[in-house]
Amino acid sequence: MNETPLASIHRQLGAKMAEFAGWNMPILYPAGILAEHKHCREAAALFDICHMGEFRLTGPAAAAALDRLLPRSVSSQKPGTCRYNFLPDETGGVLDDLLVYRISPEEFFLVVNAGTASADAAWIQSHLPAAGVSFCDLRSELGKLDLQGPRTFEVLADLGVSQDAIPRYYHWTRVRLFDQDILLSRTGYTGERGVELYFPRGRAVEFWERLTAHPLVKPAGLGARDTLRLEMGYPLYGHELDRQTTPVEAGFGGMLDFQNRDCIGRDALLRGPRKRLTGFRLDGRRAARNGMAVLDPVTRRVVGAVTSGAFSPTLGMAVAMGFVEGAEPPPAGTPFLLGDAAGAGTRLPAVAAPIPFHTAGTARASG
Amino acid sequence: MKRYSKEHEWVELDGDVATMGITGFAAAELGDITYVEVPAQGKAVKANDVLCVVESVKAASDVYSPVSGTVTEVNAALEDEPGLVNQEPEGKGWFCKIKGVAKAEFDALMTAEAYATLTAK
Questions:
Q1: What's B6's domain CATH number?
Q2: Which of A51, A117, A244, A273 has the fewest CB atoms in 10 Å of its CB?
């Protein structure tokens, strides 16, 4: 199993470690998921994201090559910005979801999921033109830490990165931190004001220790990362996104522009969605879980499946996401049962609910 | 005096009434407990049957009845405050009382020392 450069630090901190996407990762620290979640919503949490993958594409043909691979064009993307995007296959199914940073007219930085990174690298390289674009796998070179929470800017200011230097939401910049030029983007996976930091992998331990030395910063594991993203309705690859699901079905049709250009999966995406991502609020604290069926409460017919579910620490009730058949998502308030398809086990009452569940996040708010 | 099961429940016997819950070890392993489905009052249970369900942020887990008998009382406080199980697993975080428990069944469970040895492994 792979380990990030911070694995021994996590163990020293008393983290519970478990396998995630082929990596031995901290799931929670002794404070526990609820406390880590709360700290991220109220102060600043630090996440080890060194498992994720980064690639660089450069050259005069890079933008056109990416436009062929992605249903959201990058040629219209301005240098200095980040865009959420998808890597579909020919059937429109999602090979991975990713962030694309436009560094300059001819340079792009791609951030992909850990479990799919090697397959992504092979897929991208096999679809590049013979000349005019070069692909560079940066996984062994870069470390990544996410600092997330409403007080992130205070922390960065104390460490010498003034608020003026921090870019707007979904923009990136280069800043100097701990005597190092690093890439900082105003992005994240928690719904709170925050940044993602990319720096030489060899300095990961030092960056972690200096950031966590700040009194406002506490470490958070993948358990809290999951409940934080679920409250925001953000998809997790392997749950809300996979090769059986298109980006349109997952609710991202509005940001795509594949219709009038030649890109992989276009024809399949034009055929429209067969199912739609749906948020659910449950009656009480008991959570629905990935793999449970979604049933019509009257006919008891299976109409979909739950992809993620947990107790929402911020809302104090259980929430879930899943897919319901049909071209349009069910209106908010539509009742469902979530549970055992066969009828022997538990079925939990739920209603369709707008995503995000947590609407008070500070992600977009400036200082 | 308390006894313990391999499935990480504790039991305390008073006459033929057993009070039970999950151990501190189990609560720590589960992490923050967010939901406890206490058993129905009047439910007849047999030792090693699934008694109820606890959920942490991460996952749901079955809780087994360490003894046989009838559920006569449940800890209603857990409905709104499931975190009591993490805070005081062998106190305010108790799950239920089971009546009609045979002393021999209780005696066959692990002592505190034996359970400590099991969980130290």
A1: 2.40.50.100
A2: A244
Which positions ≥6 away from A200 have C-beta within 8 Å?
A: A141, A142, A143, A180
Query: Measured between CA atoms, how close is A288 to chain B, in angstroms?
Result: 9
Q: Is residue B116 part of a domain?
A: no
Question: Is B119 contained in some domain?
Answer: no
- Residue B118: inside a domain: no
**CA-derived radius of gyration, chain A:** 21
Ordered DSSP codes for A120-178: HHHHHHHTS-SSS-EEEE-TTTEEEEEEESTTHHHHHHHTT--GGGSPPTTBEEEEE-S
The domain of B13 spans 2-110
Is residue B17 a part of any domain in this protein? yes
Q: How far is A221 from chain B (nearest CA, A)?
A: 12
Instruction: Supply the pTM of this predicted model.
Output: 0.94
CB contacts of B34 in chain A (<8 Å) are 34, 285, 287, 311
Q: Which residues of B touch A34 (CB under 8 A)?
A: 32, 34, 57
Residue B56: its chain A contacts at CB < 8 A? 33
Per-residue pLDDT of chain A (367 residues; tens, 9 = 90+): 999 999 999 999 999 999 999 999 999 999 999 999 999 999 999 999 999 999 999 999 999 999 999 999 999 999 999 999 999 999 999 999 999 999 999 999 999 999 999 999 999 999 999 999 999 999 999 999 999 999 999 999 999 999 999 999 999 999 999 999 999 999 999 999 999 999 999 999 999 999 999 999 999 999 999 999 999 999 999 999 999 999 999 999 999 999 999 999 999 999 999 999 999 999 899 999 999 999 999 999 999 999 999 999 999 999 999 999 999 999 999 999 999 998 778 899 999 999 999 999 999 987 6
Q: What is the dihedral of CA A344, A349, A352, A353, to 10 degrees?
A: -130
